[in-house]
Amino acid sequence: MNPYTLTLLRHGEIDHDGRLIGLTDLPLTEHGQQQLARSWQRISSLAPVTAIASSPLQRCREFAVRQALSGSLALKVDPRFAEIDFGDWDGQPLAELEHQHPDWRQQLADGGFTPPGGESYEQFRTRVLAGLSEWMTTARGSHRLLVTHGGVITVLMAELLGTDFSVAKLMTVQRGGFVQLSMLEDHPAYLLRLESSCVD
């Protein structure tokens, strides 16, 4: 298999109002749309995109559909690329959750905690990796782009770069930003670039 570039593009800003957002289906703000449009220009200038996949949530899907149609690109919308299911916590004020459970993020990543009614980190990781593996067997071309969420990107970076989730988390992709990896089957990925959105 020839090497290819995998670009992980995080959706732009949403009006989360200080709440924890997982599967809650919020649209992009106008600013978020501008962020993705500018990042797309930058990504396309580096190399033409040959295939697109997306989370089904509208903050990712609507942009992916638009770019796929305009570029006549193959598009895969897969629920396995959705953000982690926070269950009963989805939509709750982050400040309250941080006060009541100050270490919940680390405990979730360590596998010792599952949000009530939600999915464990291992369940999340397993579905994301299964989705990527299946898409990679059908996607074509040298530049494949996934429009998805912060949690999904961190899981993939940890797996593909062979590091811990806590280390991958330090390489945060801001909303509207992207990370690019060079991929070759049976070889470790390596980091090409990590860029924030250039829209203020």
TrEMBL record:
Alphabetized CDD domains for the sequence: HP_PGM_like
A Pfam short name: His_Phos_1
Superkingdom of the source species: Bacteria
Stored InterPro entries: His_Pase_superF_clade-1 (IPR013078), His_PPase_superfam (IPR029033), PGM_Phosphatase (IPR050275)
Protein name: Phosphoglycerate mutase
